[in-house]
Protein 1
Amino acid sequence: MKLAHKHKIQTGFTLLELMVSVAIFIVISGAIFGLLGSSQKQFRTESELLGAFQEARLGLDQIVRDASDSGYPPVNHFSTLPPLSSSYVTSPVAWMPGYLTPAFCTIGTAGGGTCATPSDFDVILEGDVDGTGVKWIRYQLVGTTLFRGVVNKSAVLDPVTATNAAGVMLPYVTNVMNNPGAALIGQFQAAYPGMFPGGVAQPIFQFTCDIPNGTVLCQNAGANNSPAGVRDIEIMLIVMTPERDYQTGRLRLVQLNGRGHRINPNQ
Amino acid sequence: MQPKFRKRQFKQGGFTMIEMMIATVVMVVGLVGVAQLIPLSIRLNGANRNDSTALVFAQRELSEMIGQPITAATFTDPQGVLCPPATLCNLGNAANPKVPVGSPLVMLFNRPAIDFTQAQVANYSFNYVDPNDPFGLSYDVRWAVITYATGGIASGKRFIVGVRRRGGNVPFLPVTLDTMVEK
């Protein structure tokens, strides 16, 4: 009797109390896991953005280095010009059409000018960049991939034919969105108001030419508009992440600007 | 025997409701105090990021100015990043040497800094819109140039460049960089 009485007083939690507390616990831990999930998404998005940034920076740095080293050795470094034109630099920026004649073309933007290369999305640099002979280094945007190719300068082939040979041009930077088409530009402008001024494709390459008292954009250089007079190459790379923002579904872009400044003298 | 036992059982109470409520209030006050640190740190993190962007841009602007010929009175940027499109950015006045020309300066901790309380000066300032910022955040870029000249021809220049997020970046002061070039 005594024992039974004691048992009756020492009650534990009722089932109802337990269920309520478990329900509260589940709600709270659910909220915490929800936070964990969203921060995980944020982390993946930012990682991809950082990856795009790194890729753009890598590409930009290499273009800047190649552009800065172009134009060596110039013609006026030789007292007697070597017999093969592949031993010296004809122009810091190779051009087409008319390279083999040689007849210079004029550089334009957005399809202007008579040059097929150099253009907004294509450049072939000429120079002995590593001490192993004169090279043609070509950067060309095809679709959304920036290709890079290096080939020894040829005395008989033109630069476009030489760099178009199989296995020369290799993908270098992917997801380059400088020329993505009107539909995507509209979406980009909605996400990044400052990135596509005028709603048109943004040139990767802009060229400035030497004029008697400084440099101006080649298309404004008049009689000095020539691939042989290119001094600076202004570079703008816009790179998109492989996936959209995992949280908001928005497109994520990175824009980097740079300038290659040729140090070698004119021909 | 029985009544005594019963009484002891009855006395074995836990905390009272009042005690629990006081303890809860104390805990909530503490938690709220600590929780306020979270929005503060988010805000500071954002301000830090803006400050870093301002610093990087000031460095780019300064190196562009250093790269100009010392006698150049203006420069332009074909990409419109370091100087707005179709605008001339001024690089001091050799006819007015040894005084700051351009945006007004203020002495801050014994060093010259751009005075952002004054209005912008044309050709010595512009607003830079960060293209990588989805919200189109813009920065106020200003500079002043002290020219050293002999016979009206510049022989040295000191550039003072200030950048800050437009509208201020509390609690941080604007970024100011300065450097000197001589022939």
Protein 2
Amino acid sequence: MNRADVLAEVKSLLATGLRLDRSPSDIPDDTPIFGEGLGLDSIDALELVVLVEERFHVSIPDEEVGKRAFASVSALADFIATERTR
Amino acid sequence: MPVAAVTGLGAVTALGPDVASLAAGLAEGRCAIGPLTLFEHGGRCRIAAEVPDLPASASHGLPPATARRLSRSDRLALAAAAEACRHAGLEPPERAGVAVYVGASVGGMHEAEAAWRRRRTGADHRWRLSRLVATPVAVSAAVVSQALGLFGPRATFSTACSSSALAVAEAAAAIGRGRMRVALALGTDGLCRLTYAGFDALQALDPAPCRPFAADRAGLSLGEGAGALVVEDLEHARARGARILALVLGAGIAADAHHPTAPHPEGAGALRALRAALDAAGVTPEAVDYVNAHGTGTRQNDAVEVGVLRTVLGTRLRRVPVSSTKSQLGHTLAAAGAIEAVVTVLALETGLLPPTVNLRTPEPAWGDVDFVPVPGRRQPLRIALSSSYGFGGHDVTLVLARAR
């Protein structure tokens, strides 16, 4: 899976996995995941960790890694793409 | 008990998404019990009074992430609560001290059932917090106060089918004790598989729309909804110029120490609750003008209830109309007490008696009782009772009065 595929998959995971009221194509690459961006909260964060692990077999071991990985939609795609090539 | 004022009403029922549609449906004698569509049920009964077009998007100022995870019960509660606050003219600055007293029984059970199915069928490989976070029964009270900015005392009562009658009674009592000046008392319960299967297994469901007080009554019909009342210290209501819709004169709370589901055969708890309510209100049986009955349509409930009314009201019963709102809305369980209190306040305000529908042939032994045939009628009322009886013998009677 190349990075573009991962990015598309991440958007789909956010929209359908978290039941957001928007379609994957309406999510710009640089959207922040929390706060003003997608409007997700701490409960969604826990959920997203599970979804990412389940879908991509990539684990987010702690808050530090989480902050970096969840900075934006494209940051999450980068994190997943890098981890999967390890 | 000091008198409290009712200054706001809210309701989401199978007759419609607000009090106006409820009032119109009651006046038309419409029965809102129809096919069960919310989930599959492989049992002997397939009908329910479902709330149409649930306001899924109405988040009333909640953050989107919170709004997305509301349960059916939460959304019903929020819509009714917001309507009641609006109706009472409670603006944000006045809302800060408002208490939230909720009667509820299933909470987010419908959503928890869906989460369990997804996990079991493999649609979810792990338990998902967002699908379970609305499960606890106290969540509805929390989302209502979060959305509406209510920082006063908060409690959730769960006494089966009298839960929200108890919430109204306790709100009025706490106002009387000076704990707060204004309380939002509400009841909410969404339909779910657990409730439906449980009542069906108990053979308590009539496969046809329920027929309270009928000779051939064969059980209850399940419904869902929410009802909300702003209950307020009378002087506080007058001082802020609120319109007083009705008065809570008193309440009686008692128990059947008898059985998990069946009422006490002589209605021991129901009798105590009714007598205690009249005592607390300082009202004699002769002064009672109307009874909004629990009236589920089961063989036992209706027989015990009429017996209790006969014992307490005596010969007055012949001149007191008694009707069952459950014949129109189904049994909304923990929401029933608050919804029926709303219906009773409407009857006091407008003098329009809600009918008992689906009642062709009343039980012969009760030929002297006026069950308010369709289409109901106009009859000015001064004092009305609303009774709610919960499984396990949780009995509550409210005494309400016209404001003027």
